[in-house]
Design brief:
alpha+beta; 11 helices; Rossmann fold; disordered C terminus; globular; eight-stranded mixed beta sheet
């Protein structure tokens, strides 16, 4: 693509929308990060009833963080609330008995956390506050507490055709039996301290439960100081650094009638990873999808659940691999496997015959596949790909006879779940202008893509009146090697292409240019981005090297190069922005958290004078102290010590010239607060200026856990950028509650 043509294209789109003017005052930062959420609460975990007539899901229609259990049916899209635990916390000044701690506790209350239909479809079982409850699907009885203590219950799975549900909790693996008047549980597997059951699978015949066990005992213990206790404490956590012993994994199978578990012959090393496990349609074989710690070697084993014995039926090796977006399942006839693999130029859907014939690609080589599910009753596979637009996630259906059709014509982000009878899809959909909502649509193998029926209406009153900015997508070349880079640009609502604007790159990370409300998936920066755009900033989210959806070569550019090619991509974004003519090159800021904090600090240090300010949240400034998963990119720290050092801002601290703000939680056990203090001390010795915002009660997710600290941290961030980038609207009151 020619850069001049790319600029003409984006300017045409910008000019066409430049006449749009705000019709209402945009909410304050305080309002955006207070309950109820302006955009509402995202519906989560849709699951079909065994008869394919109903979909249950977790949601709050009040915009609360506390979700209830809801359902809808294929005949009436209006949802029905089955539980009544969701609430909005009352502010302390509304009730003298309500303390600030009460408000925070209620804000963080997740409500119902997991659920499942029973296999006979007669009840729903759900988890709430370390207990399990049953609600009949007939509506003829009240909710009943059926398990008094199930701490951390997860993976609630029905046993097909029965009134039983398997689940795991902090104590082990259990079977809940609701077939009698008095429900009771059977303990199938008990785990020791520091051992956990991570996931489960129930066999189609209902005879077996396969489970993945993780053992943290080999991991070294480290201290995380707690300064908020009455006396300072230093509780220990298990936390491995790259190169140190990490979790051990093994897969067991246990009969639903009890007995000792049978341990599968996994092959490889105990630290090797398990990416998936599933039973064959006849329940006689268990598939285990494995990879080594560095994800350079993948192998799929088929094992006998009665003995644990079996063989490896598929392998792939790639010394340059850095991602493992792997999935595998059986074809209904049990004679083939369907897998996702980047054997070609990107992740595709493949068919692997079990008779020795070579694998066959089933999806377009020019797109990336992100998820897939076999739908036996529809005689095909539903998968998600980005054909045509790298920021989209579009559902497709691939029949076993070879025809592939789109299941939606709408751009955006689609996450479909097919009904057991293969006739329906429940989808959580979103795009740049629409918060996530649950929809129902027919699964039409003909490719007609029938219109979806909306189930949830999440945004709170006033949402439609606010002047939300809609993102645009741009491409530009890396200035060093010409590789094209994709980005998501959010413009001020009164944008004038003849003016020059301040820009903020961020939050910087991989995989940030998505066509969904807010772009990024795991952080609530949708509100911050919108707020900054309304203060006169342009926001740019860059899909840096290592991001998915742009081909294998683009992902593998990041191999052993944290702080190298990724920082170059961000620098290239600043050159592109300046070339547009509507960006002030002296008012470019950058921010990010975790890996994004590493990118921010290194961007300032490697390109002094390019950025007028940077904010590094929970910055991973010591890659030697990263989690062991980062060895997928960086390899081991002994043989690659120079690469690790090159990725550490500690060694570049003397090059810092531009304003830098750190934001870090003191309870962070993912990126240690100690590492920010070590870099701060180095900067002091280098006679460098910086600022730091300390969050005493924040874990690694400092922007997602506790709205008071989120508001405080984002106020510091906005104030910092306002001081150094000086947008025209910088005089507005951030603390206003309008």
């Amino acid at each position: 693509m020619n850069l001049r043509l790319a600029l003409i294209g984006v300017l045409a789109v910008i000019t066409a929308t430049a006449d749009a003017r705000p019709t209402a005052e945009f909410p304050s930062l305080a309002r955006l990060y207070s309950l109820p959420w302006v955009i509402g609460t995202t519906p989560e975990k849709p699951a079909w009833s065994p008869d394919s007539r109903r979909v249950a899901f977790l949601w709050s229609d009040q915009g609360s963080n506390t979700r209830d259990l809801w359902w809808t049916d294929i005949d009436h899209a209006s949802p029905t609330r089955l539980t009544h635990v969701a609430h909005l916390p009352a502010p302390p000044n509304a009730d003298p008995q309500v303390t600030l701690k009460d408000v925070e506790t209620r804000e963080r209350d997740p409500g119902v956390t997991a659920f499942a239909f029973t296999g006979d479809g007669r009840a729903l079982v759900f988890s709430r506050e370390s207990a399990l409850y049953r609600v009949p699907t007939s509506g003829s009885a009240d909710t009943q507490r059926v398990v008094e203590q199930a701490p951390g219950a997860h993976d609630l799975l029905p046993v097909p055709g029965t009134a039983q549900v398997a689940y795991a909790d902090a104590q082990g693996l259990h079977l809940l039996d609701l077939s009698t008047t008095e429900p009771h549980t059977h303990v199938l597997v008990t785990v020791a301290a520091e051992v956990a059951i991570e996931s489960l699978r129930v066999s189609p015949d209902g005879q077996w439960v396969a489970f993945l066990e993780t053992d943290s005992r080999p991991i070294r213990e480290r201290l995380i100081p707690d300064y908020l206790a009455e006396e300072t404490q230093a509780p220990s956590i298990r936390r491995a650094f790259p190169g140190e012993p990490s979790e051990h994994y093994r897969v067991g199978v246990v009969s639903v009638s009890g007995g000792e578990p049978i341990w599968m012959q996994m092959d490889g090393h105990p630290e090797d990873l398990v990416f998936g496990m599933t039973f064959a349609p006849d329940s006689q074989t268990l598939l285990i999808d494995r990879g080594d710690l560095y994800i350079k070697h993948r192998w799929i084993r088929l094992l006998d659940p009665r003995t644990g014995a079996g063989a490896t039926v598929y392998e792939e090796k790639d010394p340059d691999n850095v991602t493992a977006e792997w999935w595998a399942d059986f074809a209904p006839d049990g004679q083939r496997l369907f897998i996702t693999s980047d054997r070609g130029d990107d992740y595709q859907l493949w068919q692997v015959p079990l008779d020795g014939r070579p694998p066959e690609a089933l999806s377009d080589a020019h797109s990336a596949v992100f998820a897939a599910a076999v739908v036996p009753k529809a005689r095909g596979i539903v998968f998600i790909a980005n054909t045509g637009r790298s920021e989209d996630r579009t559902p497709y259906f691939r029949s076993f006879t070879g025809k592939t059709v789109p299941l939606s014509r709408a751009h955006g982000y689609h996450e479909p779940i097919a009904s057991p009878d293969g006739r329906w899809l429940a989808e959580v959909d979103s795009d740049d202008g629409t918060p996530p909502e649950l929809y129902l649509r027919a699964l039409d193998p003909s490719g007609a893509a029938p219109a979806a029926r909306r189930v949830t209406y999440s945004p709170q009153p006033g949402f439609e009146q606010f002047p939300w900015s809609v993102a645009r997508y741009v491409d530009f070349p890396n200035v060093h090697d010409g590789t094209w880079v994709h980005a998501r640009m959010t413009l001020p609502p009164t944008f004038d292409p003849h003016q020059r604007y301040p820009v903020i790159l961020g939050s910087v990370y991989s995989n940030t240019a998505h066509n969904r409300f807010g772009g990024r998936i795991y952080h609530p920066t949708w509100a911050l981005d919108q707020y900054l755009a309304h203060r006169g900033y342009i926001i740019l989210n860059v899909d840096i090297s290592g991001s998915s959806g742009h081909g294998k070569a683009f992902r593998q550019r990041i191999r052993e190069d944290y702080g190298g090619v990724d920082v170059d991509d961000l620098y290239s974004a600043t050159r592109y922005l300046v070339s547009t003519g509507f960006v002030d090159e002296h008012r470019i800021g950058i921010w990010g958290s975790s890996y994004g904090g590493l990118l921010t600090t290194l961007s300032l240090m490697k390109h002094p004078g390019t950025y007028a300010a940077g904010v590094a949240g929970a910055p991973a400034t010591n890659v030697f102290h990263a989690e062991t998963g980062e060895m997928r990119t960086m390899m081991d720290p002994v043989s690659r010590a120079e690469r690790y050092r090159a990725a550490s801002p500690y060694l570049y601290s003397g090059q810092l010239q531009d304003p830098l703000l750190f934001i870090h939680g003191m309870r962070d056990d993912t990126v240690l607060f100690k590492d920010t203090l070590s870099l701060a001390q180095r900067l002091i010795l280098d006679d460098k200026d910086f600022e730091i915002a300390v969050l005493p009660n924040a874990p690694h997710g400092w922007d997602t856990q506790g709205l008071a600290q989120t508001r405080y941290a984002f106020r510091r961030l906005v104030d910092f950028f306002d001081r150094h980038l000086k947008p025209e609207a910088a005089g507005t009151d951030q603390r206003s509650s309008k």
